[in-house]
Amino acid sequence: MNTDGGGLDWGDELVNSLVWTLWVSAASLAGLVVVGALLAAYTKWGRQYWRVTGGFFTDRQIAPMTWLLIVVLLLLAIFGVRLNVLFTYQGLDMYNAIQAGASALGKEAGDPARQTGLDAAQSAFWKSMAVFALLATIHVVRTLVEVWFGAAFSVRMRSWLTEHVTEDWLADRAFYRNRFVPIETTDGDLTAGVDNPDQRIEADITTLVTWTRQFVFSSGGSATGGIIPAIVTMVTFSVMLWGLSGPMHVFGLEISHGLVYLLLMFVFLASLVAFWIGRPLIHLNFLKERLTANFRFALVRVRENAENIALYSGEEVEHRGLIDRFDQVIKNYWNIIHRTLLFSGWNLSVSQTSVVLPFLVQANRFFAGSISFGQLNQTASAFGNLSDALSFFRLMYDDFTAFRASIIRLDGLQDADAKARKLPTIDTADGDDIELRSVDINKPDGTLLIEDLSLRLVTGEALVVKGRSGSGKTTLFRGLSGLWPYAEGEFVRPAGQDTLFLSQVPYLPLADLRSVLTYPAPPTEFSDDELRQVLIDVSLPHLVERLDEDEYWAKVLSPGEQQRVGFARILLSRPKVVFLDEATSAVDEGLEYALYNLIRTRLPETIVVSISHRSTTEQHHTKMLELQGEGRWELTDIAVETA
Ligand SMILES: Nc1ncnc2c1ncn2[C@@H]1O[C@H](COP(=O)(O)OP(=O)(O)OP(=O)(O)O)[C@@H](O)[C@H]1O
Locate the ABC transmembrane type-1 domain: which residues (predicted)? Predict the structure, then answer.
């Protein structure tokens, strides 16, 4: 950069700027990698961030594109800083031309130097205008290109994270079992299970992605810029100010380049105070996400249970409950506002002081003729850029707190998922029949439900499980299906979809009836005729013509009809073993007989294990397991009635 006479040689500037941008970008990339690695190694939030997002930067399939986008964004951001520098030189030329014009105008009317001076000043002025037009055009194009590449980066990162976190959450039943894992909140408390995973996957990922991009890259030099442009701005403009600043006198001492030290100290102290004021915002933002999610979840529950609530006339209780939750949201909101007022008040005061500081410091030198009007203005704009860049952390702290809260929440979810996968499960092995060896089932508090249960069922056999309410029948099924972590022993069963567990109310997805019937298998696996026939078989003939209808089937079908859908699934998937948890509780005894009869005759090989309170169910089974409480149980044969 040629600073001969304070200005630039604009003819060489295009090449100079491109070379500068390349070098500084390369250095910034190296710095980004090193600092990123140090943060990931030595700070808690850095570690958490890396745990959540690491794969996006290292996964072989997507990493090349990720890094390409990072390099492009870096180049654009650094080029943005360079443009800011060039703007200050354009300002320098412009104000110097104005000052030269003013001094020419001050000469005598007849003085030939007057006209020459005015001509030179005008020519310099219009040249600076042409430079401005060029710089402004480049600035607009650069900003738009950066917006596009920034969006491309965000979309890729958000898609990767959503896919990755969702997969992790659903894998190995972590989404069910993470309720048994206590997790830590920002203030060190332990909560039972992960709250609102839906919000973590949706809102927190969005926050994390937005701030990754804005923190690191966003356009150069301004208060809303990213950390890399902020650092580059800081260095570049410090060098510029160093050249512009003269000695400063403090208590009789002469400090050369005092302006630069003054500014550094000013911003450093201002930032320290800002961090101190802003710190509680981390926890408050964390709470905000949780409380709003809780409120939304409560609203969804009312919608989901509208019929039940209306039948109980529970509107008043629900209203109170909803408003209670909403009050918590508002209370926290006010806490955030009060804290933000303090925080913003401080930041605004600091920003206002920064506006006049360079003029205060440079005024004497200007009036003494040591610096030109252009240089006075260049000092102010360099100071503004530098002060904004140095204030980056102070101004962004508020948003950083939201960013950190999101990292904590996403890491918490993944941590709970990982721990959920490590929770004990019953040892399962593949086989053709069913065998339980020394199975113990406990409650979470350690109370024994079933102790040392061993039994074997072969092809065609059927077992009915009985026992008083709360004796552990459903929990036994949960233990065998690998959901319940407080279970020990060994369990042999046919692998995969050959073993089917059916709960009291089957899950009906939001889809057309065809997909509902075949869930979780894709509907394409079955022909229309098969689906129609199965509907007729399970006494749902009125649905035969509605296979393609998309309805909220869980609300449209009666509980008894939903249970028949469950039986239809058994007939379609023809498992080798089926576990039925009170699967006929909502149908009358006649229909129960017909449904069991259907299963036993159509699928005579299938092993059936049922939980039932009804004595009428026993006739379809060959054995009975009775849970007697405190771990005791009894296994008996059921006599086959002969006509
Ligand atoms: N997630 C849980 N956390 C703590 N305790 C639980 C949990 N789930 C079940 N229990 C307890 O385990 C015991 C057994 O429950 P389970 O649902 O297996 O009973 P059940 O025999 O199927 O009852 P019912 O006949 O009423 O359906 C109950 O005391 C229940 O409160």
Answer: 221-402
CATH topology of domain 12-422: ABC transporter transmembrane region fold (1.20.1560)
- 477 CA: nearest ligand 1 atom: 18
| Full strand arrangement of the beta sheet holding 448-457 | 427-430, 487-493, 434-442, 448-457
- Gap between the Cα atoms of 292 and 181, Å rounded: 23
Q: Which of 441, 466, 474 best tests ligand 1's pocket when mutated (most atoms within 8 Å of CB)?
A: 474
Per-residue pLDDT for 642 more than 60?
no
Q: Which tens digit of pLDDT belongs to each residue from 266-299?
A: 878 888 898 888 888 878 887 888 899 889 888 9
Structure tokens at 185: 């909140």
Mutate to test the pocket of ligand 1, among 443, 450, 611 (most ligand atoms within 8 A of CB): 443
Looking at residue 437, what is its pLDDT? 92
Distance 449 CA to ligand 1 centre (A): 9
Ligand 1 geometric centre to CA of 469 (Å): 8
Question: Atom 19, ligand 1: which residue's CA is nearest?
Answer: 470
Measured CA to CA, the distance from residue 81 to residue 290 in angstroms comes to 39
pLDDT of 3 strictly over 70: no
Written in H, E and C, the secondary structure of 257-301 is CHHHHHHHHHHHHHHHHHHHHHCHHHHHHHHHHHHHHHHHHHHHH
**Architecture of the CATH domain 427-637:** 3-Layer(aba) Sandwich (3.40)
* Partner residues linked to 486 by β-bridges: none
In this prediction, residue 141 has a pLDDT band, given cuts at 50, 70 and 90, of: very high
The set of protein residues with a Cβ atom below 6 angstroms from ligand 1 is 443-444, 449, 467, 469-475
The residue extents of the domains of the chain are: 12-422, 427-637
Express each pLDDT in 38-48 by its tens digit.
999 999 999 99
Question: Atom 31 in ligand 1: which residue has the minimum CA distance?
Answer: 470
The pair of structure tokens assigned to 149 is 């590449």
Which residue has its alpha carbon closest to ligand 1 atom 20? 470
Instruction: Please tell me the pTM assigned to this model.
Output: 0.78
Give the nearest ligand 1 atom to 613 CA. 25
* Residue 180 alpha carbon to ligand 1 centre in Å: 15
Residue 6 is predicted with a pLDDT of 60
